[in-house]
Amino acid sequence: MIEDVLDLRLNEWAGLPPWADWNIELRDLLRKAEQAAAGLADPAKEEELLASIKASVTTFVNRNNELGNPLARKTGLLARIDELQQYRPGEDDPTKMGPGSPKNAAPWSGRRDGDAVTFTSPDGKRALTFLRFDAEGGPFYLCTSEVSVGLFCDITNKQGLQPPPRSQKGPCAWELNGKEIRLATHGWLADGSLRDSGEKWDARPPSKSCYSGKIDVQPPSEEHPVQHVTPECAGTWAQSVGCRLPTTDEWRTGYRKLNPDEALATAAIRGSAWKTQWEYARMLVRNFMGEAFIGRFPKLPPKDDGSAIPDAEGSAFWFAEANYGAQTLSHMIGNVAEFVFDQDGGYGVIGGSSLSPPSQWGGMKDGQRIGFDTRYPIVEADVPLSYCDVGFRLAFRSAKPSLKQLVEALIDPSFYIVEQNQQ
């Protein structure tokens, strides 16, 4: 309605009150901002459009100063104008973001190579590589590897973070050592009595191994992905190194940039090793514990038929080591599933794990597996829980708003003044 009135070109009339002059000048500015925002879809035009919108903003500010318009100082518009006038083309230095942020307790050193940024820990012991991806709202960076148990323990202990609660069953790559956490000394699940792991295999004859002799189950190393952490713990830990959990859209953007061969090349999904162990566990139950116990093994996931993806040969029974230093995203499929966090949807799990049944992937379509990027929400009641096959990877985004965001912030009809009630 205000726009319709302003189209009468009231600014050609003499003696208008200051609030009317404000609305007319603002109308012209917002129209130019809308045109600029539309043009910013083409990054090549950024500098040209930046100069144009800055000139329009300067004209707007000067015109209102000439009018002696006090209303300009009583709106939030001038704060947004100030941000826009201070904007400089080009992205902030990514080596000073994320793990390299000066705000961190111990910033990591960063080195940029094209769209990749590699950070090295202060002690030189560990390195993380992040890839840059463009998205609406500005670029973001996604770590190429999942967080390892060694890195998780190191940062947790050095920064005095709260150790994650250990209340769930299943294999765990870390253990409590007083108030600190360390790499598990008994492996994923040790032979002998398994009371410490939470699994009730006590009825198994002592002479029988927990694992089939046909598979090679290595104990966890510092490079295996961390798991058995709650989503809140993962988010807090990520913040301690200047990062956060990725959003669902960010995770999917990274995953969908991979071609199918790249994604499957680092996939750690349920294959021959799982099938072999599942059959062995059923044999133990049937021969030594009675038919009534069939279906109790493996414990995770429950009520499973033991099916595996046929061509996933040579897969690790539990999880593969994190692929640090990779220049492409690793283990987006399988290995450990990963936490994501969305402001409007809370925590979720995505990516599946090496324990996930093929049914979770959604089957096959046109010869391609589908469903790898399905997001599974975590209900509020389950947020305090941890999971034996869920870990996380890191992400960060520049704190600097994009030019498009700054321009769009100007386009706010609430800045019009409908009636004069201030002097």
How would you explain this protein's 3D organization?
The chain is of the alpha+beta class. The chain folds into two domains: 104 residues, no CATH class; 289 residues, Alpha-Beta Complex (paralog of FGE (formylglycine-generating enzyme)), CATH 3.90.1580. The strands form four sheets. A five-stranded antiparallel β-sheet has the order 1-2-3-4-13, covered by helices on one side. Strands 11-8-7-12 form a four-stranded mixed β-sheet. Strands 5-6 form a two-stranded antiparallel sheet. A hairpin with a 2-residue loop joins strand 5 and strand 6. The chain is elongated, with a radius of gyration of 28 Å. The N terminus is likely disordered.
Total beta strands: 13
Shape assignment: elongated
Extract low-pLDDT stretches. Answer: 1-11, 191-204, 292-302
According to CATH, what is the topology of the largest domain?
paralog of FGE (formylglycine-generating enzyme)
| CATH architecture verdict of the largest domain | Alpha-Beta Complex
Q: Which sequence of strands runs across the widest sheet?
A: 1-2-3-4-13
Helix content bin: 25-40%
From the alpha-carbon coordinates, what is the Rg to the nearest angstrom? 28 Å
